[in-house]
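Notebook entry, structure prediction.
Reason for the run: the old model in the group folder had no record of what sequence produced it. Starting over properly, with the input documented here first.
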Amino acid sequence: MITKQAVKVLGIDPGTGRMGFGVAEQQGTKFICHAIGCVSTPPKTAQATRLAVLQTELQKIITTHKPTGAVVEKLFFSKNIRTGIAVAEARGMIITTITQNNLPLLELSPQQVKMGVTGYGKATKGQVQIMVQKLFCLTTLPKPDDAADALALAFVGLSHFKL
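New structure, fully documented this time:
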C-alpha cells in the first residue's frame, strides 16, 4: 500500500540580525501553521558567531518539525552593500544547512511571494501580514514582518512541493 506523505514546508526569510521562519502544512482546504518566529542575534556580534547561532537554531527547527521541503527568499539587494553581503552570507549558511538535511529547496523572490500570498507583487509588508493571518486563521497579526514573510514563503512553497 502506498501512503501519501504530508507536505510540510519550512519558509525562511534570511537575515543575520533576524532570521524569520515558518513551518506550514496543508490539510485538505485548511492551512496549518506549525511554527512561526524569528531567531535573533545581538548587534555588534562577530558575523561568524551570528551565523553559527543561526545555523544551530535552524538545525533545531528542522529536527523538531521535520519539513519535507524548504523555501528561502532570494536576496533583494539593498542600498546598503554591507547589509547585502551579510544577508548573502546568511543565505549561504541556510542553503547549506537545508542541503545537508536533504530537503528539496525552492528559492523565491519577494515579488513572487507577495504575488502568491496577496495576488499583487507590490503588496506592502502589512498586506502580507494580514493575508498570512487570514490564510492560517491566526488569532493575531504575525509579527515581526520577518516571521510573516517566512510563513508566506512556506505557504507559496506548499503548492510547489505538493506537485
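Summary: The radius of gyration is 15 Å.
The old model has been moved to the deprecated folder.
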